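Extended Data, panel c. Modelled sequence:
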Amino acid sequence: MPNKNHLRIIADRQLEESGQVKFNYGFGNNDDEANPEPNYIFMARAFRDDLQSYLSDLEVKARAKDETINVPYDVDYVEVDFMGQFHLEKYYSIWYNTFGLEGVSFTNFNRTALFSIADHDKFQVFITSVEGLINRGLENNAEAAYNKNILFVKNFKLLTLSDVLRVDAETLGNVVVIKTIELPANAEIENSIIEALRLYLNEHLIEYVIDRETNRLELFDVTLNELIVIAQNFDVIESITSSLSGVVRPGIYNIPSRAYGFEIVNADEELPLIGILDTGISMQTPLSSITLQDDTFTLDGNPLIDNCGNDGHGTMVGALAALGRHNHSTNFEGEIYADAKLLSIKLIGSGDGYLSEKKVIELLYKAKNEYPHLSIFVLTICYKTHKKTNEAFSNYTFELDKFAHETDSLIFISIGNNDLAMNENNDYDLNYFNNEHTNLNTPADSMNNMTVGAAADGLYNGAFNGIASGKEFPAIYTRTDHINLAAIYSVKKRNKNLFKPDVIESGGDYGFYNPNTIDRMDNAAMSVLSSNPALGYTKEIGTSLAAPLTANLAAKLKILYPDLKSQTLKALIINGASLKNTVYPDANKPLLNRTSGYGVIDVDNTIFSDENNVTMILEDSIQSGEQKIYPVNFPDYLISSNLGKTNGILKVTATLCFSFLPLQHNQLTYCPIHMAFSVFKNHSSDDINRVQRELNSKLRTTLSWSQSARDKSTPAPYSNVQKIEFNVDVSQLRSEGKTFKLAVQALLSNQIMASQIENYPTEFNFSLVLKIEEKLRANTGRLYDELRAINNVEVINIAEAEADLEGEI
C-alpha cells in the first residue's frame, strides 16, 4: 500500500473548548501525610549525635580559615534530611522566619535540603529546639520545649570540606568544575564572596571562566591544595567536581575491510544538517562530500581530522547519523543517498579528556548562530562516572536542557557504556541492571533532549549472534536509568513516565567466546566506517552507534516534514517505538522502561502513514491552569459496516512531548511544568473533571490522565514525555457518537522558590502525536481519507506528497 504523509491537526480550528484544570479529592487517609506520635528516644539519640558533630565540624571549619585571605563574609550551611517531602509553598517561609534558614538547594526530591544560616540569632531557635527534643527523649522531660517543625527533621549536619570537595589527586585532571551557591535573600553576600574569589584567582594566576547565570566556575590546571584552600575560605561553594569525559565505546575489534566501496551521490542536495559533537570527522572518507568544510568548531585540534584510536570515533558516528542503515542494506557498495549533511564539532581528540562544559555550551550556541537551520545534534561523549541512584541534575545537563529549549534543538545523547559488563557476566542476566554502577552517565539524564540506549541488534543479516535474549533486547553493556522512585514514593504516587532512555536502537552485542565466557565477537558486532582509509571498515558495539542511528531518523523526518518542531520529532520517534518484542519475565518487569525506554525505534512506522494507519500531529500552546479539549471524529463506516469483529477494531497510540526552561537548585521541580493528556468520552471539560462516581468520562478503566498533579502536598516529579496506548471497540464509538475528546492540561508547580517563579513563563508549547490504525482481518483502505475529511487537518508538506503520488502513477 502507498505511503502517505502525516496529517497536521489545525489547532485553532479543531479546538472545541478551553476550560480550567480541576482536581477532585477523595476522602481516605494520605499515607505520606500521616503524623504518628514520634519516637522521641530514637530522634533524641540521632539529634544528640548530629549536634555533637555539627559543633565539632564548626570548630574545624573556623580553624581552617586563612586570615590572610580577604573574604568579606563567612557563611555556614546546614544540610537537613527530612522524614518526608519538604513542601516549599508551605514551609519555606516558616523555616526562614523561624530558624533563619534560607533554602538554597533541594535534592532527593525535596527530602534533603541545603540551607544557609541567614540569621544566627534565629538559628539559635533551631539549636534550642534540638536540645529540647534531646532533653525530651533522653531525659524523659515532658516539659522540654522545642519548635514543632523540628519533628519533621531526620538528620542534620554542617556542610564541610569533605562534602564540597569531590575530587582527589587521581581524578583531578586539568579542568575542575565549581558549583556556586545562589543566595536569593542575601545577594549582596553572594556577590561579595564571588568577587573576592575572582580577585584571589587573579592574584594567584589561576586560569578560570565563570558563568554567574548558571552558578558555575571552571578552573584550569589547579592543584588539589589550591582547591582545598578555596573550599575552606570562600563560603559560596556547593561542590567541586571533575569533568573527566570519554567517548562511549567499549573497545576496538580491529577487523578491517579495506575498501569503502560506495559513493554519496546527493551531496549537492539541500539536506538537514546534523552537528556531531565528538572526536572529529575524517576527510579521507566518503563523508568529506557531505561534511561542511568549517574547521572553527573545536576544543582540541582540527575537527576535520579524526585520530581517535586506530579507527576514529566521530567518523563512524557521523556516518551512521548521515547515512543511517543504507550502508548495511547495500553491503557498503554502490551509490548511497545521504539523509543529512554534517558539521564536525570536536570536543576531544583522543578517547578521554577533561571537558570545559562552558566551552561546549558556547560551541553549541555558536553553531546554532552560524547555521540557524541546524537543530539536530549527536553527543556520544559522557562523563566517565555513573550517576548515583536518584542523584540530582548536574550543571552540564541543566545547560544542555536550557540550550535545547531556547533554540528548538534536539541532542541525541548516548546513555553510556558500562565497560565492566563483559567481565562481570558470563551470560545475559537482566538482574545485572539492578546494580547501581550500571546507572547512566551525565548528561544522559537530560530531559529536553533524547537519550538513546543500545539494542543488541547489529544490523547484519541472518541469525542473531549476540548474548541477549533477542536482538530487540537491551545490550548488557548499555546503561540504565538512575531514578528509582520506589525508594521514595508509595506505589500510587510514582510517576510511571519518568525514566531513561527514551528509546533504544541497534548498537551490536557481545558474543559467546565459549559456553561460559562472553567477549567481543565480530559476528555479533556492527560494521562501521573507519577514519583510516587503509582499513575502510571495522567492527564496533556501543550506545555511541545507537544514538546517531536515531538522529538519522530525525533527519529523515526533517526531509519530509521540514517545519516540524524538535519536540514533535521526539514525539514521533517515541510514538513509533515499540516494546512488542521485548518481553521481560515478571520479576524483571520493573526494569523494562529503565533499560529499554519506550522500545526499539521503527523507521517506517515513524515516518509514514498509510490508508489504514494514520498519524496526526498537534502542535499548540497552553496556559498554566488551562485544560484544552480537541474532538477526534471517527468515520461512520466503523460502526455501520461489517468489519468482521466488534472489539479492538482500532488501536490508538499517542505521545506528548514538550520542552521547558529547567530550574536549578530544586530536583523536584527541575521540570516545574505539569502537563498531561488523555483521550476521554465525548464529554465537556467540566464533565471530564467530575468525580468518577458522578460521571465516568474514561473510555477504559485503565485509561486516565497520562500523569497527575493531584497531590499538592507530596507531589512526584513531572515528566515531559508521556505515552498512552488503547484499543477502540465499536460499542464505544456508537455510545459516544463517533467522537472522542482529546484533553490536554497544564499547571505550573507550587513548589518553586519565590526567586525563580517571578519571571517564569506561564504559557507552554507542546507537541502531541496521535496514531490511529485499523486492526481488522481485512483492512478497509478507508481510514486515512475519511479521518482527513471529518477533522480539521491538513496533509503536511502536501506539495511533496502530491509529487510522490504522481511519481507512483
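Residues 613 and 773 are 4 Å apart (CA to CA). This feature is highlighted in the accompanying rendering.
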